[in-house]
Specification:
By secondary structure, the chain is of the alpha+beta class. It has 2 domains: 1-38; 40-166, Umud Fragment, subunit A, CATH 2.10.109. 23% of the residues lie in helices and 26% in strands. It has helices at residues 2-38, 151-154, and strands spanning 40-43, 58-61, 75-79, 84-91, 96-100, 103-106, 109-110, 130-132, 137-141, 157-158, 162-166. The strands form 3 sheets. The protein has a 5-stranded antiparallel sheet with strand order 10-9-4-3-11. Strands 7-6-5-8 form a 4-stranded antiparallel sheet, with no helix packed on it. The chain has a two-stranded antiparallel ribbon with strand order 1-2. A hairpin with a 2-residue loop joins strand 5 and strand 6 (103-106). Mean pLDDT is 82; it is low at 30-35 and 175-181.
Length: 181
């Protein structure tokens, strides 16, 4: 009789241990899978993306896609060394960017920024008035150009700094066939 009870206890203990391992391993794996599939909620912490995203707006951003999927106008979340930052992609790897006449030119073409309020202007910053991007760099700009600290200040960002992505579904931003939008 004792051997039967001992076997039952052993099975119950083994079953309880299995459930514990399933919870301890399963929850983090489930969280990571959900994060990969669904994305993450990001709270806008400043006014650099006004009026598109006001302060405290909540965004569901997707996981970072392959480099080639990111297009002009997309919103990216990246690490600037001090925390997460939200900006808009203005230029892609390999592009030449010029800030002149208070506007943004990419590969010699005026960037059509239909998402900006009328009469917005963009001046160059401390990082320079033109960039030639390497094969993994982006120029990112805030929509509220007068207050935004962005690539005009700290230069291009690397693909490896990206932490989240929100694709842009508006009109084409450049009259180029490989706009990726």
């Amino acid at each position: 009789m004792r051997t039967i009870l001992a076997k039952k206890r052993s099975k119950l203990l083994l079953f309880a241990l299995f459930k514990l391992v399933l919870v301890v391993v399963g929850l983090p794996v489930s969280f990571l899978a959900a994060r990969k599939l669904l994305g993450a909620v990001v709270i806008v912490g400043g006014s650099s993306m006004d009026p598109t995203f006001p302060t405290d707006a909540k965004l569901l951003v997707k996981s970072v896609p392959p480099l080639i999927a990111i297009g002009r106008g997309d919103i990216v979340v990246f690490n600037d060394g001090q925390g997460g930052v939200i900006k808009r992609v203005a230029a892609l790897p390999g592009d030449r960017v010029d800030f002149k006449k208070s506007q943004v030119f990419v590969n010699g073409h005026l960037l059509n920024e239909s998402y900006l309020p009328p009469h917005s202007f963009t001046v160059s910053g401390d990082a320079g008035s033109h960039f030639l991007l390497s094969d993994d760099e982006f120029v990112v700009l805030g929509d509220n150009r007068q207050v935004s600290i962005d690539s005009r200040t700290y230069g291009p960002i690397s693909y490896h700094q990206l932490r989240g992505w929100l694709p842009y579904n508006g009109p084409s931003l450049l009259p180029l066939p490989n706009n990726r939008n």
